[in-house]
Amino acid sequence: MKLKNELLNKIPESPGIYLMKDRKEKILYIGKAKALKSRVKSYFQNSETVLPRTRVMIKKIADIDFIATTTEIEALILESNFIKKHQPRYNVLLKDDKHYPFIRLATDTDFPYLSIVRKVKKDGAAYFGPYTMAKEIRETLKLIYKIFQIRQSRDNLGKKTTRRPCLNYQIKKCKAPCSGKISKEDYDKIVQDVILFLKGRNDKLLNDLRNRMLQASEELRFEEAAKLRNQIHAVKNVINKQKIISTNLKNQDIIAFYREGDASNVQTLLVRNGKMSGEKNYNLKNLNGIDNDEILSSFIKQYYANEPSIPEEILLPIDIAEKNIITLWLSEKKNSKVSIQVPEKGGKKKLVKMAEENARFAFRKEESNQALLEDLKEILSLQNIPERIEAFDISNISGSMAVGASVLFFQGEPCKKGYRHFKIRDIESSDDYRMMSQVVLRHYGRLLDEKKDLPQLIVIDGGKGHLRTASNALGALDLLGKVDIIAIAKGKERNNILTDEIYSKKFEDPISFPVDSPVKFLLQRIRNEAHRFAIAYHRKLRKKGGLNSILDDIAGIGEKRKKSLIKHFGGVAGLKEASVEEINKTPFISEKIAQIIKAKI
Q1: 55, 93, 201, 205: most buried by Cβ count inside 10 Å?
Q2: Highest mean pLDDT range out of 224-238, 482-496, 571-585?
Q3: In angstroms, what CA-CA distances link 400 with 32, 84, 434?
């Protein structure tokens, strides 16, 4: 074709990426090439080897843009970035945008501290992870604070450390660097121990602890020796619980997939220092006409484009055409050698098989969830398959400290990043209906303002009255009829889930379900999660409420000063015991304010 010849003539033979566009300038496909002109020309040769999917795409091409690069590795990096940005229809797309958490060790202070983050920055801090489960990272931090007594506060401590020690010092979970109870040199030893623990170098850590214990014992510092002995026992207990996968102690990623038709699940097993540290799942769809080589290559390029943790070895189930260039790219990115292997036997082959089995199981689970959601749509006469379901609950004690909560389930599973809680405003009495209306209005008013995705189904914890109130709130936002809504209430026997009743405005009577209905179980699970989340937030507020309520009645105490006092003294008892001078040492508290506080409590 003449048009195609004109397009091809402007493309150079250098490395780079090409962007195929339709008549509306929409990008159809992004690819990279060692030689751009030769690669693009291959699409337009009359060959029976061209896949049907590619033939359909070629017919839609109206223009081809290109960006030349110096090397093929530069082209590979550019390709990954552009695919992520533009999400072309005919590329394999890794749409999972979940940022797995890392533990960050702040190094911009004399006394480093730990925190949980979801993005790794080039800020000089040390990062450890990723952790694929929130529970896992919380338990790791809990162990560290118990074993090593590193500080939990995040204040930027300078050379003047005159603060009063907090409760963690009293219960021996912190060495109180904020109060000058430990020198920088001794604190640095703790930090080094924590780094060894997080890196999994427990053999070296145990050796160091033993040497320090023996030295303390020889110097008759028996109390310090006993503490080191306890640390050794605690670290050994952690080691005994860890599952050893490989004896070579290498960092490995095992990537495998399971495919049926145009859908696939890709599984990544993370092995760090020979121990299984987690797994990641990704669902890929619309793969019709794409071979397994391209699926795996595209996944690896997009996955590692922004992945800060690159292992020494990557194990695959099949060889890929771009293995050499990807290996070079990852080695440059890591600043050390990376090996990509397709094991044929032995322990590494077993790891690949394990990843394939996990991918198959995850695919089946996804398939099962999809069938469940389709059944839910049919039984409740919903407009769409409810891939996004949000549930609401209210928690209060006689109207006091009233809170609301919403949870999000995506494709039948909890999606924690979509969870929200709300402090109820300007409602004194215990009026659940008004509270529910306020929460629904605030939540969906914000989603509409921010132009974010709405759910296909809303679940309200309550009966007909709650359903009516929430529906009216949706009506005020012009969402009634656009989003389906139901309510689930306790039945005659409040502690028996079999008597739960589910209401919809589309039916006069409660919706009937079989006793063992998986659809009803799903709705109950979502309702229970909303209830749990609301109760947890209410308890958290009640726990802080004692000191908050006292401070709210004192003129001149705003949110900033209140937060500082709560952080400094922990509660009412600590504040009551403090002198005016000690209160005055709290950040943002003047002597005059300190005197007022002391007089009031």
Answers
A1: 205
A2: 482-496
A3: 61, 47, 14
